[in-house]
Known about the structure:
Elements: H1 3-8, E1 16-18, E2 29-33, E3 40-45, E4 51-56, E5 60-65, E6 71-76, E7 82-87, E8 93-98, E9 102-107, E10 113-118, E11 124-129, E12 135-140, E13 144-149, E14 155-160, E15 164-169, E16 175-180, E17 184-189, E18 195-200, E19 206-211, E20 217-222, E21 226-231, E22 237-242, E23 248-253, E24 259-264, E25 268-273, E26 279-284, E27 290-295, E28 301-306, E29 311-315, E30 331-336, E31 342-347, E32 352-356, E33 362-366, E34 373-378, E35 384-389, E36 394-398, E37 404-408, E38 415-420, E39 426-431, E40 435-440, E41 446-451, E42 457-462, E43 469-473, E44 477-479, E45 482-484, E46 487-490, E47 496-500, E48 505-510, E49 516-521, E50 527-532, E51 538-543, E52 547-552, E53 558-563, E54 571-573, E55 579-582, E56 585-588, E57 607-610, E58 613-616, E59 619-623, E60 632-636, E61 639-643, E62 649-654
Antiparallel strand pairs: 1-62, 2-29, 3-4, 4-5, 5-6, 7-8, 8-9, 9-10, 11-12, 12-13, 13-14, 15-16, 16-17, 17-18, 19-20, 20-21, 21-22, 23-24, 24-25, 25-26, 27-28, 28-29, 30-31, 31-32, 32-33, 34-35, 35-36, 36-37, 38-39, 39-40, 40-41, 42-43, 44-45, 46-47, 47-48, 48-49, 50-51, 51-52, 52-53, 54-55, ...
Amino acid sequence: MSIVRNQFKDCMPQWTRRLLEVDKNWNAVLQTLEGHLGPVGGVAFSPDGNLVASGSNDRTIKLWDAATGALQQTLEGHSSYVWGVAFSPDGKLVVSGSDDGTIKLWDAATGALQQTLEGHSNYVYAVAFSPDGKLVASGSTDGTIKLWDAATGALQQKVHSGSVYAVAFSPDGNLVASGSNDRTIKLWDAATGALQQTLEGHLGYVGGLAFSPDGKLVASGSGDRTIKLWNKATGALQQTLEGHSGGLWAVAFSPDGKLVASGSVDRTIKLWDATTGALQQTLEGHSGGLWAVAFSPDGKLVASGSLDGTIKLWDAVTGAQQTLVGHSDRPLMVAFSPDGKLVASGSLDGRIKLWDATTGALRQTLEGHSGHVWAVAFSPDGKLVVSGSADGTIKLWNATTGALRQTLEGHSGHVWAVAFSPDGKLVVSGSNDRTIKLWDAVTGALQQTLEGHLGPVWAVAFSPDGKLVASGSINRTIRHWESETETAAFYPDGKLVTSGSDDGTIRLWDAATGALQQTLEGHSDLIWAVAFSPDSNLVASSSDDGTIKLWDAVTGALQQTLEVDAGIRRLSFSKFGPYLETDKGLLRFRTTHFGILPQQSELISDIYVKERWVARDMEKLLWLPPDYRPRHAAVYGRVVALGHVSGRVLILEFSF
């Protein structure tokens, strides 16, 4: 068992009835460094291995303690994305290259800006120090590589190429290698700027370059998904390393020259034997593509920077991998059955999985779709599951046996939304083809096609009596029978329709005449969900601005604002009191509308998944490590289901 897990195994809070299923032996990630507000484009170790530098789309460079993960410095000054970072050989300076066209030199101890090197007319993607620390090389999409005096900032050399994505000095400082979108690697004399070699063979851009420590080999990573090892002296191709399923932007040699690390947009880091080309390890854990990799000076650690905004430190020796059981790609939707005993998840892998909410065991895998599964829902009696897919079909499944009951065909685009009518007899679907279709849930026969939207239909819902259908689209108009906005809901008596739009407003409409009754303004971003309270007095709305707002349905006055995660996709009022049921859990709100509350149901527990935490009544209780933070979540009473980008669906249960 892992040392840290073993040390704290007896320190679990008593209110955690069931914990997340975690591997006995943890994966190779030692640290996840969080703090950047955008993708990480470059990482580098200091020569002594004590610091890690990272550059990000948030325009900053951050310096981290490699042992503790603590943030030491934030270097601010660039006006655009930072793609490249490097330490000087003595560790005293950090160089950064940016989309603002400049290279900046910083004091690594104080964070003070020492030099700004100007001369490029486009993005600077790559920077490097010469081995003696006297020169800085920069590569830009303006088609040039520039060599600068690190002490004075004076331009020493300028050589031409295509758009330059990568640069590296040879260990002796005599050569500069450049990688370009012209699919070649060029070797240049650092003193004269003369072209020495052109290495050809890649079928895509060259995004990563590195010299072996002895200077005999050049490694290149390309958009053609391969790494190539070249003889520096002769230019001959020595090895082609294949295994990534996406393009590469980063390669690095270990300090002893025995390993090559590669980072790809397929979200993995691979470690290769530099002599034989054999794959040694695949390190998985990032939820975004890789832009940067680096070895620590002792070769024991690998640092990686990703589009997911994190830097991870990996044990390069053990390379222990986490076994991900479940989906082979990230879930797009999770939902509980009406009785809370099952969790359904739909995924980018085209499958629906049904999980036992009590034990976490996989009960069924529903296969048949040929595209991403965007929507899943249970029938009111819990016996059927309906799914909508990018393949344009809706499928009905037996929730007990997993057997396919019906395939409903008729849409000519992705199916984004599905729902059962309250009596379970009809299924409604919304599609990229701008239509809503009503289907007989028993026979699969098409009953109606509702046309009129000017954009894809993202949301559909039945009115409480099942007589009306509301639909939400990307355009902002409302029709008599539908709401062509992001989301819609019906007044409990069916007389009003409320709609939320990407203009940040909620509107209340007369369902019979189509007349506008109220416009509720206050959100600053797209509206994802709206709902009426059971007594029709309140309207709740959730927005990408990170809030849920409660409105008086009669006067339109704002009653309350709840600060929550952005992007609450599902929202409804609980029948058990002043609670909102969301796809992230239950939220309590203040109200006088409910009067004396009924005896609370077992379902009420105020559990909510908030950012990096599982919270109770918005009080943070359980911190979720980066690898366990969900893309989607669902809560039923005390049970929480978390859907992750890795393809896992994990289940927690609490005893309070």
